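Dear H.,

Thanks for agreeing to be a second pair of eyes. The structure we're designing against is below in token form, covering all 253 positions.
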């Protein structure tokens, strides 16, 4: 994935360093050690985030598998099929991690299923090229978001997120989008508009999840007196990262 953000951005967004921190209001401590899960609130925090990740990867697998059937070439079909396999492998990695914690991946995903399904229903692509753009925007946006939380994770969870983020999905999608835009410049205005809609919906979705599971914000910004200010800063950074990616495609964000 295309990062577009630095570790310092992640630290400023979360208000934590990697040695652990304490929420003065709730007494929550997130040490940078493997015994972090002894804290039930931290375990709940990670379970929810990994539930979102797992259902996102499973949904990605389903969408890419379906999109591959409508590819304009056999090479495109194989390329999207390869990415779909990666998404499912990531889903299984998260499931195994949760199982080690005594939690089924189904239980972790269930609270977010309806919300994520509704997001995908609102952002149903009109054709294969819009599907490609959606996969690119959502994959990169999700990666940026999870990396921004890195300072809140214990080492094992942080390593899992890094492993999921290590694939070449975004690079492949960016390359194929550039080729498509080069072959048909008329796509530019349509895909630029579609990209703006996608990132707007993604930001709204992130806010909705934060409201539905409001204690997450309390953990992420435990040391900050104004949660809203730091949430706004994080989303502004995500938007800037998206704008850079669109510029790299020659599109206006």
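And this is the sequence the design step returned. I haven't edited it by hand at all.
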């Amino acid at each position: 994935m295309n990062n577009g953000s630095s570790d310092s951005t992640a630290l400023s967004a979360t208000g934590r360093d990697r040695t652990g921190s304490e929420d003065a209001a709730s007494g929550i401590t997130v040490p940078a050690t493997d015994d972090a899960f002894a804290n039930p609130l931290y375990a709940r925090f990670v379970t929810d985030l990994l539930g979102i990740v797992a259902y996102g990867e499973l949904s990605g697998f389903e969408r890419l598998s379906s999109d591959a059937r409508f590819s304009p070439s056999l090479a495109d079909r194989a390329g999207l099929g390869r990415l779909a396999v990666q998404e499912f492998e990531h889903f299984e990695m998260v499931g195994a991690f949760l199982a080690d914690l005594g939690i089924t991946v189904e239980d972790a995903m269930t609270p977010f299923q309806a919300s994520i399904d509704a997001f995908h229903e609102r952002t149903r692509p009109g054709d294969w090229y819009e599907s490609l753009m959606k996969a690119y925007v959502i994959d990169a946006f999700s990666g940026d978001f999870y990396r921004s939380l890195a300072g809140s994770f214990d080492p094992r969870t942080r390593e899992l997120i890094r492993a999921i983020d290590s694939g070449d999905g975004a690079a492949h999608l960016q390359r194929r989008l550039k080729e498509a835009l080069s072959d048909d410049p008329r796509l530019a205005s349509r895909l630029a508009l579609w990209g703006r809609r996608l990132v707007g919906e993604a930001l709204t979705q992130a806010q909705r999840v934060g409201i539905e599971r409001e204690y997450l914000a309390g953990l992420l910004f435990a040391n900050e007196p104004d949660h809203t200010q730091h949430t706004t800063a994080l989303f502004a950074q995500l938007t800037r990262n998206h704008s850079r990616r669109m510029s790299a495609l020659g599109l206006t964000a």
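Two observations from my side: Residues 36-248 form a domain with the Ferritin fold (CATH 1.20.1260.10). The radius of gyration is 18 Å.

Warmly,
E.
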